[in-house]
Amino acid sequence: MAILVCGGAGYIGSHTVKELIGKYEVVVLDNLSTGFPFLLDDNVTFVEGNLGDERVLDQLFTEHQIDAVFHFAANSLVGESVVKPLMYYQNNVAATVTLLQKMVEHGVNKFIFSSTAATYGIPDRDLITEETATNPINPYGRSKLMIEQVLADAAHAYGVKYVVLRYFNAAGAHASGEIGESHDPETHLVPIVLQHLLGQRDKISVFGTDYETADGTCVRDYIHVTDLANAHILAYEGLAKGNLANEVFNLGNGAGYSVKEIIDVCEKVSGKQATVEYADRRPGDPAVLVASSEKINKVLGWKPKFKLEEIIESAWKWHSK
Ligand code: UFG
Asked: What percent of the chain has pLDDT over 70?
């Protein structure tokens, strides 16, 4: 039996594939729209195709004995989602509904879904639990929340068993140094700062210095991509053993760091000095997003292994290469 990883050539998907290899047979479906062939592991069966393509899915579920689907394939930029909402609803919602439909038709019932802190919107408290109200403030967050709701209905009607994982800020790179964070264009803070420190960008812009935080810049919860990957495997094994079904879990370190603090740590790790420009707020950014991951710790024993400095060190190693 194999695991189908949709979006296995993307950042978090490829790191999860690395953890799965050796334990499980893996089939990757990716259209390479935002993923990269160089992130693909040699030990997987790769199918290039679209999530919403019924023909591709029929063939895939017929040719391979799929036990579970890990679904990373999505557009995931908040700003872009505001400008191109229909693309987000098409790719993140409609295509995922097609995927679920095909799973049901082919008798595949385990689903691990990549969701996001963006489902919470502007939370009414600093430490976010899974009970915190979900009020997404952009199409990206809404597209992910819609699928969470679809999953609850599909579980009820067809017996789909799912785990929703709401990631906070993924960062870092694989210990091997072989794969790491790559986006084109890059919009995420850690790679941008490291690219600047490597001389690949003139400066860093800090978006907003007047937030209600200790130093006025936004606070986020950075979590190592391999810690995220391992949570997927625990979730799958929980589903496979029948120990859990239809759960939502936050994934973060439970510690918040400001944009300025991230730049400081990047400077320390690289031994280089950054040139920083203070810019206006970026629309749609909540001031503080920090996860309580107590629930997944209690239910699945998941605990992040990497602290901020180690996250940045692993990313620095990758970007320096
Ligand atoms: N930032 C800067 N300068 C930059 C880039 C980012 O100051 O050049 C700031 C942002 O304004 C934000 C923080 O750094 O305050 C982190 O920004 P990222 O773009 O790295 O990450 P986000 O918090 O915006 O995004 C992450 C995920 C999204 C998810 C979102 C939920 O990448 O998928 O959290 O809020 F939707």
From this structure: 100
Ligand 1 in reach of 78 Cβ (< 6 A):
yes
Catalytic residues: 140
For a mutational test of ligand 1's pocket, the pick from 188, 200, 201, i.e. the residue with the most ligand atoms closer than 8 A to its C-beta, is: 188
- Token representation of residue 237: 């094994």
Given a cut of 90, whether residue 285 has pLDDT beyond it is no
Strand, helix or coil for residue 134? coil
- pTM attached to this predicted model: 0.97
DSSP reduced 3-state for 234:
helix
Cα-to-centroid distance, 168 and ligand 1 (Å): 10
Atom of ligand 1 nearest to the CA of 78: 36
Nearest CA to ligand 1 atom 26: 169
Distance CA 91, CA 78 (A): 14
> For residue 218, which atom of ligand 1 is closest to its CA?
15
* Average pLDDT score, the chain: 96
Can you say whether residue 45 is alpha, beta or left, with left for phi > 0 and alpha for psi between -120 and 50 degrees? beta
**pLDDT per residue as tens digits for the range 189-244:** 999 999 999 999 999 999 999 999 999 999 999 999 999 999 999 999 999 999 89
Give the number of other Cβ atoms within 10 Å of residue 80's Cβ: 17
As a whole number of angstroms, the distance between CA 204 and CA 263 comes to: 9
Measured distance CA(79)–CA(77) in Å, rounded: 6
Placement of tokens 């979900």 in the chain: 134
Q: Which atom of ligand 1 is nearest to the CA of 204?
A: 8
Residue 182: pLDDT over 90: no
Per-residue pLDDT reduced to its tens digit, 125-175:
879 999 999 999 999 999 999 999 999 999 999 999 999 999 999 999 999
Q: Ligand 1, atom 16: nearest CA belongs to which residue?
A: 189
Alpha carbon nearest to ligand 1 atom 32, residue? 169
